[in-house]
């Protein structure tokens, strides 16, 4: 997990709010409104924290966003790892992973969007810290996909002719594409059909 971007607090100073709970609420605001469409007032209202308290904990809106990004990745990665754990082989773990992201790419959650996608679109080109986080997220996904492909080849569930790095790039593009499509609305059946079609490249 990346380190949060809150400014250092004075020793012994009591925390005025629960950081994780507040950041979970900030994540919703940033994913729905985007970085540029979100104001400190929006964050204060959603997080249940006064603007003054926010500025005591964070240097500015960007610091709140980066901390929210780190929290988002921590939570989502934990849920993702739990989702794929029951898989009996590499192919099944990839199927569970694709289905996990299909589940987040429809309905209300789909329309809300993905904080990583939002950061890539709005900030990565212009902000080095956001760009580094997006790059680390992408690299982590591709490492995971490549590992699962190699596991599948070792256990016989994925074709030996498959190129693991190239396939990892493609599978990452599939899940990010599902999240983008989800912003404009799609039902779960459509998202699942995309995920299941992607599995055919592993034959």
From the N-terminal CA to the C-terminal CA, the straight-line distance is: 34 Å
Beta-strand portion reads under 5%
Largest sheet: none
Task: Give average pLDDT, whole number.
Answer: 90
Number of strands: 0
Order of helices and strands: HHHHHHHHHH
| Mass-distribution shape | elongated
Query: Structural class of the helices, strands and pairings?
Result: mainly alpha
**Weakly predicted, low-confidence segments:** 1-14
Q: Fraction of residues in helices?
A: 55-70%
Oligomer: single chain
**Count of alpha and pi helical runs:** 10
- Specify Rg, calculated over alpha carbons: 19 Å
How are the SSEs placed, and which strands pair?
Layout: H1 19-33, H2 40-47, H3 51-57, H4 61-84, H5 90-103, H6 107-112, H7 115-122, H8 128-155, H9 164-183, H10 188-199
Helix pairs in contact: 1-2, 1-4, 4-5, 4-8, 5-8, 5-10, 7-8, 8-9, 9-10
What is shown here, in short?
About 70% of the residues lie in helices and about 0% in strands. The two termini are about 35 Å apart. Mean pLDDT is about 90; it is low at about 1-15.
What characteristics describe this protein?
mainly alpha, about 200 residues
Explain what this protein looks like in three dimensions:
It is a single chain. The chain has 203 residues and is an all-alpha fold. It is elongated, with a radius of gyration of 19 Å. It has ten helices and no strands. It has helices spanning 19-33, 40-47, 51-57, 61-84, 90-103, 107-112, 115-122, 128-155, 164-183, 188-199. The two termini are 34 Å apart.
């Amino acid at each position: 997990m990346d380190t949060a971007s809150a400014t250092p607090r004075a020793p012994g100073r009591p925390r005025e709010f629960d950081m994780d709970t507040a950041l979970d609420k900030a994540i919703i605001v940033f994913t729905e409104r985007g970085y540029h469409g979100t104001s400190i007032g929006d964050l204060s209202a959603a997080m249940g924290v006064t603007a003054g308290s926010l500025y005591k904990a964070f240097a500015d809106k960007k610091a709140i966003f980066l901390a929210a990004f780190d929290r988002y990745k921590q939570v989502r990665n934990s849920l993702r790892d739990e989702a794929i754990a029951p898989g009996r082989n590499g192919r099944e773990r990839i199927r569970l992973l694709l289905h996990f992201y299909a589940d987040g790419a429809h309905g209300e959650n789909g329309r809300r969007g993905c904080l990583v996608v939002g950061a890539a679109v709005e900030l990565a080109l212009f902000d080095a810290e956001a760009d580094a986080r997006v790059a680390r997220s992408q690299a982590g996904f591709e490492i995971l996909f490549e590992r699962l492909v190699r596991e599948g080849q070792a256990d016989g569930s994925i074709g030996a002719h498959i190129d693991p790095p190239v396939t990892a790039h493609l599978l990452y593009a599939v899940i990010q594409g599902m999240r983008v499509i989800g912003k404009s609305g799609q039902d779960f059946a459509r998202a699942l059909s995309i995920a299941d079609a992607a599995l055919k490249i592993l034959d």
